[in-house]
Amino acid sequence: MLKLNDEITPESQVRLIQIDAQLESYLTERKYLIPGFSLNVLVNDLGVPLHALTYYFNNYKGKTFLKWKNQLRIEEAIQLMQSGKADFHTLESVGEACGYKSRSNFIQAFKAQTGESPSAYLKRLG
Question: Distance between terminal CA atoms of the chain?
């Protein structure tokens, strides 16, 4: 979601595009699934200053870092559920596999993104 405007200098636009490319490459490592993954971890791993990443998420991606991270984690949880892995594991273990330290945080994030609980989603899958 590109949200650049005329107020951003051409140099800043180039830098935001570079950060986006770095992040796309970084996503293949799937570190966002590790419990405790934070913006500071991303700052250290990418070598991009905190203010630049914060600006990138809020203004280039149009969402906070936390919303971005939760979106990736819930997409992973949905994949696990759709592939049948949740049939052999508890929803709590699915949440843990996606980086959530607690069942309640997983359920809250899942509901925020999908509008339903993980158990309701699973029932709908049949």
Answer: 33
